[in-house]
């Protein structure tokens, strides 16, 4: 992806949410990876939380991040599968102002080359929620790495050409 060196990089405020009934701060390796990749890309980590796999608890946390003026982007890991406890998409759904269907489509396309047809079990998705960008990634380190390195972080780099979500963010936030 071409980077325009004549454009300035703009660090964004990022919140990381891990949806899990079993992970702790010591065992959340996917959250660790998300935090590390976002920091390495030059962004600010505004918050990092682990929330149990509970629809209302997750929705409340998403809403808290949406209401926080210092959070531009939420990266959620986990809760995107097809079992009964996987409820991140359902928790987020009523908060979405504009879905970004291309994210999930591209994620699954890229994921197919790594895990084959198992990619259909992923409900990775993204949306704009009252001016905040939210990305739902699988809980696996491989899914986090793929989603962030190949899609999310390039789109959060204001120097990315031909365009990026980062350069649109001021307009997106202004409209909400």
Which properties best describe this structure?
single chain; 176 residues; alpha/beta; Molybdenum Cofactor Biosythetic Enzyme, Chain A; six-stranded mixed β-sheet; 19% strand; Molybdenum cofactor biosynthesis protein B; MoaB
Give a description of the structure.
The protein is of the alpha/beta class and 176 residues long. The chain has one domain (13-175): MoaB/Mog-like domain (Molybdenum Cofactor Biosythetic Enzyme, Chain A). Helices cover 40% and strands 19% of the residues. The protein has six helices and six strands; from the N terminus they run E-H-E-H-E-H-E-H-E-E-H-H. It has helices spanning 29-40, 55-67, 88-92, 101-115, 141-155, 165-174; strands at 13-19, 44-51, 73-77, 98-99, 125-129, 132-137. It has a six-stranded mixed sheet with strand order 2-1-3-6-5-4, sandwiched between helices. The longest helix is centred in the middle third of the chain and has 15 residues, at 101-115.
CATH topology: Molybdenum Cofactor Biosythetic Enzyme, Chain A
Low-confidence stretches: none
- Which value, in Å, is the CA radius of gyration? 15 Å
Number of distinct beta strands: 6
Q: State the CATH class.
A: Alpha Beta
Describe the main β-sheet briefly: 6 strands, mixed
The number of helices is 6
Let me know the CATH homologous superfamily: MoaB/Mog-like domain
Query: Taking all residues together, what is the mean pLDDT?
Result: 96
Helix content: 25-40%
**Overall spatial form:** globular
Going by helix content, strand content and strand pairing, the class is alpha/beta
Order of strands side by side in the largest beta sheet? 2-1-3-6-5-4
